[in-house]
Each structure stands twice: as C-alpha cells, then as structure tokens.
Structure of CRP-like protein Clp:
Amino acid sequence: MRDPIPLDLARLRRSCSECALGFLCLPAGVDAEDMARLDAVVRKRRPLARGGTLYRPGDALRSLYVASEGSFKTVVVSAEGEEHVLGFHLPGELFGLDAVGSGQHRCQAIALTDALVCELPFARLTEIAADLPSLQQQLLRVIGQSADRDHDHVDVLTRRQAGERIALFLQGLRERLTRIGRHGDEFQLPMSRDEIARYLGLALETVSRGFSRLQDDGVIEVHGRRVRILDPEALRRAASGGDCQGSSATRACDRA
C-alpha cells in the first residue's frame, strides 16, 4: 500500500511559476505517484504576447487554462464587427470552461498583457480527477466560481445606474484579487477603460466620468491604470445600490 503524502503546493508553484492551482488541489492529500501524475498535467506552459489569441469560437475543447502570469479577456464579435467583452480572467483563475458543454469554444480568449499560460489537457484532468475525489471536488468548486462570475456579470448589466455598475465592477475585482492571494486594495488594471466599458455595457466617456467621480468622492484613487481603494465600505455601499446615507459614496451612487 502506498503511503499518502501531503500535496506540495510550493513544488507545484515552482513548476508552474506560481500558477495559482491551489484552487484545484490545496486541501488534497495524494501519494507520490498521483503527485507525479498531477504535476505532469499542470507543467505544460507557453508564453503568449499581449494581444495574442489563445482560442477562437469553434475551436475544439482540448485544455482548460490558468494564466500564471498576465490576464485575459474573453470576447465575442458581432456580425457588425463590434467586440463584446464577456469576462476578464486574472492570474490563477481557471478559464476555457465555455467549451465544456458542447466541446467547442463559443468565444475568443485574448491576452491583455504578456502572459504565461498553464494548460490543463481536459481529458487528462478529468481522468486524474476521477481517481482523486478531492481534486474532483475542487474542480467542481472552480467551475461553480466561474458560473458565479457569469451570474455577477448579468447582475452588473441589469443595474440601471452607471455609477453602480462601475463600483460593482471594482468591488468584484477587489474580491477576486484577494481570493487569489493578491493585494485587493491597490492594483494595476490589466484592461483599458474601453474594455471595461464594453464589459459593463457603457460608453467609454461614462466609465471615465465614473472613475473620476469615485475619486472626487474619496472612494478610490486613480493614476492611469493604477487603482487604490481608499474607502472599501463606501465602495461596497455604492456597489450594492443600498442606503448610502452618511457616505461620500452617495453621490457616486446617484451620478454618472
């Protein structure tokens, strides 16, 4: 009988350049042979330059992806050539799940920055997950988190006030960065204002004004793409669309 050993997350991160696959395997206890099998799957990496395409609509599902460095956007392009941003994918977040149902990708994944991508061949991942219940549970958890983000996007688009959409976007980004172990109160936006506008269903000018107003109200501080959250509670209230009485976020909720 093989002796189980704890999963060496540090070893995985070294082999995957700090790819945050802890979401898949953090609580798992696996033996040495299974560790080697999992490590062999997550070790596949490839660089992608900013603006490079990882997959396109119609491409067959071969792998799921995690950016160990850099960020991605997923988009669809209308018949008129207009780009609609479906989501942003931060380092350590699993993506490519749009193809799991049909076996083909329904959108295009584009690198927002120079990126280093871990590829997890889907067939091999599901094979290993079938033998490792803890990995299977974590994979389902990650898929659930992706579904939650899709639901959050729909929630954003139903908000009537532009200021509320912008605050909700920043609040969600703050929470996601914290979840993957990054600093959620001060960060560099990997996406442009125009890409944020396309994600939120707003005009570029509206997004720029919304950022400026949140800054004027002391909720955030902005320098180019660098954002610092000065008042997390005010941002939360602005994002919730609830009672903002007594907060500088009141004006941010009502304007834009």
Residues 159-254 form a domain with the Arc Repressor Mutant, subunit A fold (CATH 1.10.10.10).
